Each structure stands twice: as structure tokens, then as C-alpha cells.
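Protein chain data
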Amino acid sequence: MDDRKVLLIVEDDPGLQKQLKWSFECYQTVIAGNRSEAITALRRYMPSVVTLDLGLPPDPANASEGLKALQEILELAPATKVIVVTGNDDRENAIQAVAMGAYDFYQKPIDIDVLNLIIERAFKLSELENEHLALQQKSAEPLAGLIASCKKMQELCRKVEKIAPTSVTTLLLGESGTGKEVLAKAIHRLSDRSVKPFVAVNCAAIPENLLESELFGYEKGAFTGASQQTKGKIEYAHNGTFFLDEIGDLPFSLQSKLLRFLQERTIERVGGRQEIPVDVRIICATHQNLQTLINDGKFRLDLYYRISEITINIPPLREREGDAITIATAFLKRFCELHNKKIKSFSKEAAQAIETYSWPGNIRELENKIKRAVIMTDDTNITFDDLELEKSIDVSMPFNLKEVREAAETLAIKRALTHSNNNISNTARLLGVTRPTLYTLFEKYGIQVNE
């Protein structure tokens, strides 16, 4: 494989073609003799730099053919650095070419040393622009630990970035397995409390008779077995973040005490009389419909208002177009490293199954399926049988043609990225577009790529 930088030379003079190819042998030089050949070579090789003779046939004395070639090149690959080459008396067309978007111009007769300097500068600028774009994409990754590339999740991440620096009480709503605790930890990491404790309590996992002492702590002798003073989880979260998961399962008898804490920011341990001030950021989460619980008299309306100063609805995985295969690929890499396996990717049938399965257990179910497949397979690829999934039909396709097109393009790009292991050049080749066009599509659809 030729790893040299690709330089496309568009020149119709055979003698000059040979001279330029010999002079720039440090590059992978590609020669095109007319506009049609130039566009074909551009699509195939995706060069960063092009030298373009404005005097192309059919009429070398007329620069219109060269200017048309320039226009097509910049339309197909706007970031390409095009150096136009003109005759001594053709300065006007050279200026017009620069106005159209050419990087620079050079007048004949050609001095190889001078032209080489211009080409070197063009390649250097192209590299700097690509590095800057890569840094922008890296810094655009909204939240560490959260894999989110679909439009819904990108919007959610922007919302999280806005609220994280504040101390506003946040309610996370979403089905089981959608990653509510992952999101809560991401909010904590983005806040000014990130170096302080993150303490989580699952209200559904602790028996009701123990939950009060777990949250608020207890004094020595408060009940049988209370042999010493013990701090509660809220107190341990002082100056940090307290995450109350499955708050919909919080016993009604404890809701008033939690409400008082949220209002006063003080607690009383079980069996105690002293009010203890606690400074914490509160994040709550539940998979239940709190409005239904309120209507049934199982959840206090005033508590709901206290915990939902900001509410974030986390979409289920089946509504996150293209995210399933992206997340599955990340899990594949993680579990391969963890279990020292050499699995490269998913088979075509496995990738299709991941994309079309409804994932009722959401990300947690996906994680478990990939983990099992990595452990059990002896192949270099995860197959459909390894996943142990039933084929399903996707009925969530929208009717609006614009939305259908966007969804299809986004899915196609993510599939190509997966099959090419995030290699941008190979992805562009699979999709039949240029690298600059692909980067434009990344930005359009909010697709994050770790190269």
C-alpha cells in the first residue's frame, strides 16, 4: 500500500505531465489530462492537493474548461487545496479562480522549486485543518462515558451540559436499562462538585424498614442493634452529588421527610434531635410514571415539584436511530480487551439484527448480549447466532420523506463506520463519497467518530 500523500496533477501536455510526475515523486502523483479524468481521479483518490492547468482541452487558449473543472472539484471536495497553473498573460483568470475558491495560483513557465514550495504549504495547511477538525470532533463528544450519536441524544447531551454546572434538582425519566445512573454520573463529572462524593441509593433495592436509616443515618440506641452513631447516605454525599434512583418506589411515609430535607437542606438522624446541614446536589430517577402514582395517591405532588426543577426524558434504545450498533461496537471493544479476545467485528447478519431488534431491556440488555457473545464465540466475528436474538421488524420508520432520508443516511454512515473500524478513508470509499463530504455529513447529523 502506498502511504505517500496523493497529489493530483491536471495537465494536458504529455511532456509536462512526465516532468511533473518525475519532479514530485515524493508524492503519489496521479495524472489527469482533462476535466472528466480529473473528476474521476478526485473521486477515486480523494487528494488533499490538486494542481490544475486552466488551459485544458478542448480549447487550451480558453480557461473556461479549467474553471469548470475547478468549480466541480470544489463542489465535490470543498476542503481540497487547488493550485491553478496559468500562462503569463492569464492573470485575470488566475484571480477569478482564487475568487472561486482556489488555494493559490502559479504562472508558467514552471519553476519546480517554487511550485514545490507552494504544494508543500498546501499539504501542511490541509493537515492542520484536518487536525483542527479532529480536535473539534473530539471536544464535541458531549459526555464522557455516554455513547450518544443520534439526534435525540445529542440534544439531550446539550441540555445536560447546560444544567450540570448549576445545582438545580434534576429528575431523570426513562425505561429500565436506558442508563439513568450513567447520565447522573456524567452530570456530576461536569459539575464543580466533580471531585466530591457521588453517592447513589436505589429506593427499590432497600427494604422499607431500613431505607430511612440508610438515607438519614441513626443515633446510638435509636433502635435494637443501633450500637453506634451512623451517618446516612445523604450525609456522606456532603458537598457532592446524591443520586436517588427509582424514587417512584420511595415509601409514602418517607416522602414527607425527604421533602423537608429538600426544602431546608438539613437532616435529622433516626433517634436524633439535632438538625444537621447538608450541602448536596440532588438527582432523582425513575422508570415509573410519576403522574400516575400521584393520581393514585402514592406519590406526593409537592415532592414531585421539588425533584423536577429540570426533567430529562431519556429515550429508549429502540428510538435512538443508529445508536445500537455504535454502542454494541464500543461494548465489543471493551469486552475483547477485558477477556483477551481477538474478535474483529460483527457479521453482516449480526449487525443487521442489532440494528433492527427492539431491545426491550435497552442498553443493559445489549451489554449483556455482547458480553455473552464475546465470551462464548470462537470466531473472529460475532455472528447472528452468537447474539441469541430473534429477528424483528422495525415499525418506527417515519412517513416524512426528509426524516426518512436523514435516518437512512445516518444509519448507512454508522454501518460503514462499524464495518471499516472507524477508518474515515475506508468509510468514505464504502459510501462512495469524498472524505470532505463525509466530514460534512458527520457535522450535519451530529455523528461523533473516534479515529
Observations:
- The domain at 151-315 is CATH 3.40.50.300 (Rossmann fold).
- The first strand starts at residue 6 and ends at 10.
